[in-house]
Write the structure tokens for this entry.
Amino acid sequence: MTSKPLLIAKGHGLGNDYLVVDRNALPWPLTVERTRLICDRHRGLGSDGILIGDVSARPIRLDILNPDGTMAEKSGNGLRIFAAWLHGRGRVRTGDWFDVQLVKDAVRMRVEAELAFGAVQVRVEIGTASFLGRDAGFTPQPDLALGTLLDLPSGATAEVNPVSLSNPHCVVFVESLNRDDFLSRAPQLCTHTAFPAGTNVQFARVAGPSAVELWIWERGAGETLASGSSACAATAAAVRLGKLPHGTFEARMPGGSVEVTVHTDFAIELNGPAQMIYRAELGEGFLELLA
């Protein structure tokens, strides 16, 4: 029997859902096997990943696990959900900037406003976009790698635009978003040998002078309704390629829209909602299984 209960919260950013747990409450490390079981949508709690927060650290520490148990360097939706979790626990106040240390870098963010039904609006200074292949984990071209043509295992090709926001992205611009095309090419790009550590894939189109529309296939998770860092990567790539000027744009995804600002130095700001859904105590039998 397990004597100590374990509380896990769940939140979502435009349908991209994460579990949140206090690192100091964990009775054991979240191994690959435990993470996969917890994230399983049929035998576990179900989620697109787990956020492990350490509020005792300075700055506050956040580790992000994909549902396959691998570590994610950054998640725009995950960061906003984490801010909502901190805000709900009284750890941060509306309007106050705070820093969060991730596995590779740190970000600054704040809760901008409290919205209806307990949601919050969160602004994240997510980092400076790099278009160098070496930064995005793209081995064929370590320098500027925009517009590189890749052969895919299926025999198709893709013109890729590697982008790094401390996590890797592969943006493919299309004239129109086609479901069959996306489901065929996006998974092949996610695990392509050109990205030995895998990559997050965005199929994107410029939808007028102030908007980008995109679909997302995330490394370690598959298709997701939304991704904050993907929205930033796709918008930054559109600006870098001259499809849009520097400025603030709406990034539209199946789960909803966020606001992305691309500054002249390619520093990126993400502004969007997040909402906590529940806080649950894991059953003793499930804890025993995890142990």
Q: What stands out?
A: The chain has five helices and 17 strands.
